[in-house]
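FAD:protein FMN transferase, Desulfonispora thiosulfatigenes DSM 11270. Tokens?
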Amino acid sequence: MKLKILLLSLLIVFTTTSCSLPLREYEYTSEEFIMDTFIKIKVYADNENKAKESTKKAFQEFKKIELLTNRFAKEETPEYEKSEIIKINKEAALRPVKVSQDVFEMISLAKEYSTETKGAFEITIAPVMDLWGFGTEKNNIPEDMELRNKLDIVGSDKIILDRENNTVALAKNNMSLDLGAIAKGYATQKSVEALRNSGIEKAIVNAGGNIYVLGEKEKGNPWKIGIQDPRKEESIIAVLNLKDQVTVTSGDYQRYFEVNGKRYHHILDPRTAKPATGLLSVTVITDNSTKADILSTSFFVLGLDESLVYLEKHPDILAFFVTKDNKIIFSPGLKEIVELKESEDYSYEERR
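Tokens:
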């Protein structure tokens, strides 16, 4: 009898102890070159198969959006035939073009933010980008007259959407769209949704500087994400402490060419058709990758003062600005999650 009681007691202790033991966490990292950048995904799961399958689904979202939005695919290739943006640019000035739900949503959001940012965000900028040679291997400094002529076909008010039929039409001949300022953010958001739907609660998706962190790095501890010094590639000027958030940076150092010592970068002001001035970089922090991608470009074009006015009306969005006169300005609320690095090159200031 005593032996039975002892065995039962041991069983209860063992069972209780076993239940309290944490599940083994499996870490899986994979990297692929998609959307003209390296996409790195790290997930944590309770088993290897779940980690690998969820990562595969996340990458599929990037691949799908790349195919739909690639406007530089070569003719007579499968990529060319599958690109909906190429079809829009070829045919939408003649007749409405039916598109997928993903492309319709991106264009619809772009139109919305074009209005909200007073034209600072603009996907109809493609003809101007082509004049400058961005997206190609041949850069060029256009004449002012050439730029002014192209501005006549820039403006999202000239995009005609039919939500009931999922069609896109363009109001003027020679218009063309470029989704480069929204597609990667949208794809990142879809990939994170794919991870969540697979039961993943902890992950980090790095899409060439568009970084989404899912959950916490460790219980009670956030993920730490560095903000690059726009003039020193290997240096970090601040560290963000994030949980279930995304950070996206737009800067004049990411894609540019130089002529006679002057830098011409790829973030064009749709109102002037020339590279935006005033800032070296803008980092946006929020909970939606599509929104962060759009706003990092928008703020870079708007400049510091107009961006701060926008941020006053949207307290859920945080931003970190590096100006051309070597000032670092951050919006209210960011102070709680940012660690500033000491630097002789910059002065720091919180704006309210």
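Residues 24-66+189-215 form one domain.
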